[in-house]
Amino acid sequence: MRSLFLLALVGIMIFSSCTKVPVTGRRQVNLLPESALISTSLTSYQEFLKDNKPIRSGRDYDMVKRVGGKIAAAANDYLRQHKQLKRVKNFKWEFNLVGEDAANAWAMPGGKVVVYKGILPITKDETGLAVVLGHEVAHAIARHGNERVSQQMGLTLGGIGLSVAASNKPQETQDIINAAYGLGTSAGVLLPFSRKHESEADKMGLIFMAMAGYNPREAAAFWTRMNQKGGANVPELLSTHPSHGTRIKDINDFLPTALQYYKGK
Ligand SMILES: [Zn+2]
Q1: For the chain, how many structural domains are there in total?
Q2: Is 136 considered catalytic here?
Q3: What digits encode the pLDDT tens for the residues 6-24?
Q4: 236 CA distance to ligand 1 centroid (A)?
Q5: Domain assignment present for 3
Q6: Prior bond to 170 cis, omega within 30?
Q7: Marked catalytic residue, from 34, 136, 147, 200
Q8: Which domain holds residue 228?
Q9: pLDDT digits over 153-174, tens only?
Q10: Rounded CA gap, 54 and 52, in Å?
């Protein structure tokens, strides 16, 4: 009887925490409360920016702010049009450029995005940067970090709640969050970035860049440059390596859908 009751309770919890990823419509279950994850992630983010001073002026800085602002506005528009704006209700979009040489970028829950200077020779221009930022903004909106962190917490911390974990095991919790976004190497582990998450972020990113006025036809060329020049040490953007061919095919297959959102030629 008791187990039946528990089963029903678990069922209710899963049902009530079930949400749908924008664009793909994939159902998500067992997510941590997003608001708790956002505040815990903020600690990691602020620590990262303390160690890696953001660039505060210049052409590259201006470009990151400009493209980031357009992509975030487009993403918010998409969510508004599809009545999913509550997914970003605790977000405060922020786009920072840091002087690191790695060809990397990542986004945290809550809309905290970091671009490494080393990726700019590969993005080449604003459209290339829009591909990267569309992809990263999509990860945050799709709550991929949340899925990774909740899965890892279930494995290593026995599924205790995030706030309990953060106060009882602050270092372990921070390590998991850092590992989920591939930032820093102090954690010693990198949670695997799944093909499913990458594919979702690619599709959503194509729509966001198109809505922001950037030609989504340029995306495949960027990923090809990234694949050639990114090197092995790019945990986030090339996590699907070596399935570069599949990524390009998927992007080309999705292009007609993305082009419906593109006003240019
Ligand atoms: Zn990614």
Answers
A1: 1
A2: yes
A3: 444 444 444 445 789 999 9
A4: 5
A5: no
A6: no
A7: 136
A8: 23-259
A9: 776 776 667 777 777 777 777 7
A10: 6
